[in-house]
Each structure stands twice: as C-alpha cells, then as structure tokens.
Amino acid sequence: MKMIVAGGDGFCGWPTALHLSNLGHEVSIIDSKIRRKWDQEIHSNSLTPIASLEERVNKWYQLTGKKINIYIGDLNHYDFLREVLKQTEPDAFVHFAEQRSAPYSMIDREHAVFTQVNNVVGTLNVLYGMKEIVPDCHLIKLGTMGEYGTPNIDIEEGYIHIKHKGREDVLPFPKQPGSMYHLSKVHDSHNIMFACKAWGLRATDLNQGVVYGLHTDETQMDPVLINRLDYDAVFGTALNRFIIQAAIGHDLTVYGKGGQTRGFLNIRDTVRCIEIAAENPADRGEFRVFNQFTEEFSVFDLAEKVKKVAEEEGLQVNIAHIENPRVELEEHYYHAKNTKLKDLGLEPTLLTDNVIREILHAVMKYKDRVIRKNVMPDITWN
Ligand code: NAD
Ligand code: USQ
C-alpha cells in the first residue's frame, strides 16, 4: 500500500513509519518538525538524543534498502498538502500530526487557540484534500481516549445504544474532554464523521490511551533510529515520567490522590494497531471508532509498580502526592471497551515487571540528559 504518515517525526509516528516500511508498504512522512521547536520554546529536550529526520530515513535506507520519502511542511498549508497528495496518491493516510500535550494547550489563550487551529484546521485540510484528490483513501486518525472523559458508566467504542422515551438509536458516545487539547480531538471527530457521511470518505478514529515505552523492533536496529522520549511536565506522560523520575532519584509525581484511571498501551502495540487498521480499512462512508489501549491503571497503581521494580534494581524511590495542576476527578469509575482491535488480531503487550525493567534500563543510559527543573508541573488548569 502507499501510505502517508503525517507526524512521522514524532514519538508515535516515527516508529510507525519504520514498522509500515518494514512490512513492505511505500511510506511517505509529512512533518513540519514543529515538535522540535516546542522543545526549544519550553527549554526542554527528548531524554534520548534524536537524529534529524533526514539522518533517520538515510540510516533506515542504508540498513534495509527501503526508502521513506519525506515532505517537510504543515498540514495547515493546503497547497502543500494537495501537492503531496497528488504526488503520492496514498491508499491510507495515517494522521498523527497534531499538538498533543494537554498542559501545553492550557498555558494561556494563545496556546489554546494555536492547539485548536493547528489540530482542527490541519484535519479539515486532510478531509478536503482527500475529497478533492484521493476520495478512496482510508483516513486513520489518532484520536484519544480522553475524548470520553470519565463518565460513571462503561465507555463504549465510539457509539452507544440509547433508548429514550420509547424510541432507540445508536449515537456517538457522549464526550467530556478534560483540556483544550482533548477538546480539539472531539472537534476533529465531529468533522471527520460529517465528512464520511456527506462525501462518502472512509475513516477510522483510533481513540488511543496513554502510550508508554520507547523502543520498537525497528527503532532498536541502530542508535540513529532511536525514538524520542518525553519526560518533562508538558509533554511527558504518566508511566514514562514515573520510570524516568525513578531513574534520576526524583519523587514520583502522582497528581493529587492518584485514583485517576486511564487506558494505557505500549508503543510496540501502537505500531501494530496502525498496521491492523490499515489492513482492514473502513468502508466508503463509514466513520469507525476503535478504542486503542490494552490495559487500565490508576496513576497511583502505576507509581507503585514502578517503585517496586526500581527498588528491585537497587534504586530508592519515593511516591509523592503533589497538588494536582489539573481539574479532573481523582477518584472515579472507569471501565472502557477495547475489543475491536483485539478481534482484528491485536495481541496486547502487557505491563509486566519485566517490561517496566526493560524501559528503566533503556532510560538509565540517558538519565544525565534530564533537565531536572522541567520535571515538576507549573502549568495549571485554572
Ligand atoms: P509528537 O508530538 O511526538 O508527534 C507529533 C508530530 O506531528 C511531531 O513530529 C510534529 O512536528 C508533527 N506536527 C504537529 N502539528 C503538525 C502540523 N500542523 N503539520 C505537520 N506536522 C505537524 O506526538 P505523539 O506522542 O507522537 O502523538 C501523535 C498523535 O497520537 C497525536 O495526534 C496524539 O494526540 C495522539 N496520541 C498520543 C498519545 C501519547 O501518549 N503520546 C496518546 C494518545 C493519542
Ligand atoms: N499524571 C500524574 N502525574 C504525572 C503526569 C500525569 O498523576 O506526572 C496524571 C494526570 O493528572 C492524568 C493522567 O496522569 O490524570 C494522565 O496524564 P498524562 O499526562 O499521562 O496524559 P494526558 O494528559 O491525558 O495526555 C496523554 C497524551 C495525549 C493523549 C492522552 C491519551 O499526551 O496526546 O491524547 O495521553 S488519554 O489520557 O487517554 O486521553
């Protein structure tokens, strides 16, 4: 298949581009490289030293003989996007290219507006580009489990069967997102659903949980292919942050009570989920939603798991309940369905002690790169 991976220089996109290329697909990356500029803006860095995108794809070619094309540009620039679609004529468009940090979107009005314009307009351009140039292309869009929030009922995969005043229907599951970033994903979902209905496009919205880990089989092939790994309070996410905090002797930063429960998955499963979605495309006119996570954990449970493994490795670890910078429930019901990807063949990588140990060992190599002042959160929701 001919595939575009938009956001292919990022944490999920880079390993996905390699994985799809390794499977024999013809991969083209679109990325504006803006993620690297956000590191400069917030004076932070990837824990791992990452090569330039050009060096990365050259090394991949040297190692495998497989060519990944790169198109440097912004999805918000429609003329650029049209040109790429015309040149590549993709069968699938994998869309990771958004501003994905909740704290970044909550810095101030400018960052909220930027996040929503970047994400919503970028996705709208992809929809119009597909309609105009490649109407049969399958859009595989990264959404988030955070679109649903934490309702006091089970979370279904995209749609819920409702009986109301003697009538019934299958309707989109209610959305209660928890940040300006998560809201942008809800807006995207609505726009994609409408485009599928109105223009007969085909789309899969992957409501992904929090991704942890770092390596995949492909990124491990050479140090130049290493993935980025975020640890700071703006872009770092719960489990990866805790492992890195344990490595540098920092208290594990559980926000508030720590009963916040979310869906999680290993980056190795992210790349496999994209493969599965691509090989089983949605029908024309279908807006399909998969919940892309493998296990549910509360943040306090995760901190305890990390503490146990790190102590077995001879590290001293303290769990701190710090004041929660976010507005969110710290104790709540959480149970979400995630059967659709498993029905299509996903075999989950579970979070065993050994998986945590492997990530910890990988992280220890680079722990001196951590800028400690970036670990504690300073962006608040209110
Ligand atoms: P990332 O920030 O590491 O990568 C995103 C990439 O997209 C970056 O390389 C950036 O330069 C690029 N980009 C952003 N806006 C762009 C634009 N307008 N035009 C072109 N390129 C642009 O993020 P990630 O962690 O790889 O996340 C990828 C996607 O997966 C996001 O949509 C995110 O919402 C979703 N997701 C991530 C996680 C997670 O835990 N990392 C969990 C659920 C969903
Ligand atoms: N948390 C802590 N301590 C930390 C960091 C986070 O207790 O040091 C808590 C947060 O308060 C929150 C939970 O952990 O309750 C998850 O936070 P996170 O920063 O790990 O993840 P989140 O902000 O939700 O965002 C990440 C990605 C985003 C993706 C989302 C999936 O950055 O792109 O959409 O995970 S989900 O959480 O399912 O919405």
Automatic annotation (TrEMBL):
InterPro entries: Epimerase_deHydtase, NAD(P)-bd_dom_sf. Residues 3-291 form the NAD-dependent epimerase/dehydratase domain. It holds the Pfam family Epimerase. This is UDP-sulfoquinovose synthase. It comes from Melghiribacillus thermohalophilus. Belongs to the NAD(P)-dependent epimerase/dehydratase family. It comes from the Bacteria. Transmembrane segments: none annotated.
